[in-house]
Amino acid sequence: MNLALIIIIVIAVILAIFGGLNSALSWLLWVALIVGVIALIVFLFRVISGSRRT
Question: What is the dihedral of CA 17, 20, 24, 27, to 10 degrees?
């Protein structure tokens, strides 16, 4: 009975860790997409406005 309880606890902990990692990775993916879009907008603004260096 104790072995089954330990196995269930270990599986629950592993699933909780994977669930947390999935949530964190999803959040980081959205942050990366937002930063990428901002970088693309800044790049396009610089290309369109042109550099005025002499």
Answer: 160
CA distance 19 to 3: 24
pLDDT digits (tens, 9 = 90+) for 1-54: 688 888 888 888 888 888 888 888 888 888 999 998 999 898 888 888 876 655
Neighbour-count burial of 49, counting CB atoms closer than 10 A to its CB (0-12 exposed, 13-18 middle, 19+ buried): exposed
Here the tokens at position 26 are 């999803």
Token readout for 21 is: 């990692």
